[in-house]
Write a structure and sequence with these properties.
Elements: E1 2-9, H1 15-25, E2 30-35, H2 42-46, E3 54-57, H3 67-77, E4 84-88, H4 95-104, E5 108-118, H5 122-127, H6 132-141, E6 144-148, H7 152-159, E7 165-167, E8 198-205, H8 211-220, E9 224-232, E10 238-244, E11 247-252, E12 259-266
Parallel strand pairs: 1-4, 1-5, 2-3, 2-4, 5-6, 6-7
Antiparallel strand pairs: 8-12, 9-10, 9-12, 10-11
């Protein structure tokens, strides 16, 4: 039986970064299934793994729309030399429905659900009238929580929803977090399919874009929950954009591409005018 771990957590909580840490420490091949909300799967391109062992599930919330794709992907992995599977859930998905595939798909066994939480934003996200239900469900349904950038307040907030919490600064070996001993393996039933009404839009351009213009656009559209992608700036500079509820960051990128940004949002989005 091939063990399956579901990595969940709200948009921008650090799931892709964590998976890359798993892969760096792994002593044997691990397959990764990545689900991004929308047609542009940025996260799959950021996974540092063998190309044949990273599979993309795009254009929807995997807990609602892509269940058949999970089964097909798991089936395709059976003949490969792997010791484990990680499913990176979309940042807007409720993980229980995804985890059920690990419980029921022939040849695979569920280790558990590991959810990430960003200590700087988890409090406000849980109180948000649009996304609070989704964020709360992700925490409550997880077998274990990894808390990034923790504070005393964020820790107390999470303890009210899930007691099995690990702090990022206390983790010395990330592969240990894939060990079954860290998970409660409680009974998993079906989760309600309802959650916040998210939409996604993609902006592409062959022209250089000023990062200040992108920052202004994000400020004018506070209902944007996540923005990520590659930006071709002036003077031949390429950057990776990562905007989360905690802030906006541009980091140098060796990946040279036209500007490709996916915006995930609730409500309405103003026209792109970069």
């Amino acid at each position: 039986m091939i063990p399956v771990t579901v990595v969940a957590g709200y948009l921008g909580s650090g799931k892709t970064t964590l998976i890359n840490k798993f892969l760096k420490e792994a002593e044997s091949p691990i397959a990764v299934l990545v689900n991004d909300f929308g047609e542009l799967n940025i996260d799959a391109e950021l996974i540092d793994n063998q190309e044949s062992l990273t599979l993309s599930l795009t254009n929807g919330c995997v807990c609602c729309k892509l269940s058949d794709d999970i089964g097909v992907s798991l089936e395709s992995l059976k003949g490969k030399d792997i010791t484990a599977v990680i499913i990176e859930a979309s940042g807007i998905s409720l993980p229980i429905n995804i985890a059920n595939y690990g419980l029921s798909w022939p040849g695979f066994s569920l280790k558990g659900i590991l959810a990430l939480a960003d200590g700087q934003s988890i409090g406000s996200l849980l109180e948000d009238k649009f996304v609070g239900y989704t964020v709360k469900g992700q925490i409550e349904q997880a077998d274990a929580i990894l808390l990034n950038r923790s504070s005393g307040l964020s820790l107390e907030v999470l303890k009210g929803l899930n007691e099995n919490i690990f702090l990022e600064e206390e983790v010395s070996n990330y592969t240990d977090l894939l060990s079954a001993k860290y998970y409660a393996n409680h009974f998993i039933g079906d989760s309600p399919k309802e959650h916040a009404s998210f939409q996604s839009s993609i902006f592409t351009s062959n022209k250089p874009i000023k990062r200040d213009d992108i920052k202004k656009y994000l400020l004018l559209n506070p209902n944007i929950q996540r923005a990520k992608g590659w930006v071709c700036e002036e003077n031949g500079i390429y950057s990776l954009l990562q905007m989360t509820p905690s802030g906006c960051n541009f980091s140098p990128s060796s990946f040279k591409s036209q500007t490709r940004i996916v915006f995930i949002y609730t409500g309405k989005l103003s026209p792109f005018e970069f």
